[in-house]
Write a structure and sequence with these properties.
By secondary structure, this protein is an alpha/beta fold. The protein has three domains: 158 residues, Aconitase, domain 3 (2-Layer Sandwich), CATH 3.30.499.10; 96 residues, Aconitase, Domain 2, CATH 3.40.1060.10; 176 residues, Aconitase, domain 3, CATH 3.30.499. The protein contains 16 helices and 19 strands. The termini are far apart.
Length: 470
Amino acid sequence: MFMSSPRTLFDKIWDRHVVVTRNGNEALLYIDRNYVHDGSFHAFGALAKEGRKVRKPRQTFAVVDHYVPTLGREQGLAGIADPEVRGMIELLEHNAKVNGIAHFGIDDPRQGIVHVVGPELGLTQPGLTITCGDSHTSTHGALGALAIGIGASQSKQILATQCLWQKKPRTLRVTVDGALAPGVSAKDVILAIIAEIGTAGATGHVIEYAGAAIRALSMQGRLTVCNMSIEAGARAGMVVPDDTTFQYLAGREYAPRRADWDKALEFWRSLPTDESASFDREVHLDGARLEPMITWGTSPEEAAPVGGLVPDPQKIIDLDKRAHSVQALAYMDLKPGMPLTDIKIDRAFIGTCTNGRIEDLRAAAAVLKGRKAVVPAWVSPGSTAVMRQAEVEGLDRIFRDAGFEWRASGCSSCAAMNGDSVPAGMRCASTSNRNFEGRQGKGARTHLMSPAMVAAAAVTGKITDVRKLV
């Protein structure tokens, strides 16, 4: 009797979606879900120029997030002062309407950052292939999907054909065993992983995150880990679906129901990596030894435990990394050997597709309750639904009482595309995912960390080990 060889979660999804292959390792993949946002107008424009329409409109979903303002939202489109931004938001609505695509616009209660909205609505499900014109599409892999960030030309290809040519990546399993200590979060886990393997450490690979520490994470924690897979150079990040996944999806707007739910569960339970399946590479970390992490440089791999020191570039063996760290320290205005906890901050920001979920807001609010921020700070929830839930729980009042601005949902200060920028020379404690030069504004200096760590920095005015406050 023929027996198939053991396969990984990635292999199972890849094999199921191959339409045709060419050149050995390249495949035309069928795409189950395609997300578009207000920056996707190039793909729609190219499609229209050829006289085409969207091939499978019911499998494409439009979300306004990148450029949408977080202030003045009660006025809707009328509150957008920049005519170019208003035009992009209106264009997304137009493109969605003419192509019959579901659209979560500026006034829709389901609006939010696309990588928060997809899982939140149950659109993201185990076993699916998912694409979006944004590098952090890897977020959706937390639910056991193969989620890939794409460019404008690839987006056009998917809109026109519902398929995408891809070279088959290699596989990397990152196992984080042990139990995380109190005060250590999913953001600390992924920053520790990137610090260990580097921003090119997973290039050409899909990462499967495994181990006791990963399995113990909530779905929101897993979303944070998979979100920053791209910062390690990976094509995608994934976590095998389990009861945590299924409980998260149950009852969500687009999740299967009744008999379809039972059928979906049967399929989802077949997806986890086979016990004897092999990976091209393996990396192991001890979760019990991890500490709260922050970045000191201008790359996510330039990160260290909060109790550490700014490193001396001359002690870095890799010449390219040494040169980058010299440049990074000059930009960040830091000196080798100084304690990270001596770094003063000027701004604090909580939000983004990395850490803008309700669990993230709860963690920050727990630190802020009864305290006052000593620097300007703001919160932009990851979705309108998250914002409303936070308000029901009274978290918005905790943030406001602490001196934080409570803003509407959007990408906000992640990339400073909508006016939520950090002034030149200012240092920001941020829950976002990238810290390269100018990411949060020209001349801005970004330190990546968890929501609780941002809250701790906001109330002390400097990098602070949150474990000393809680």
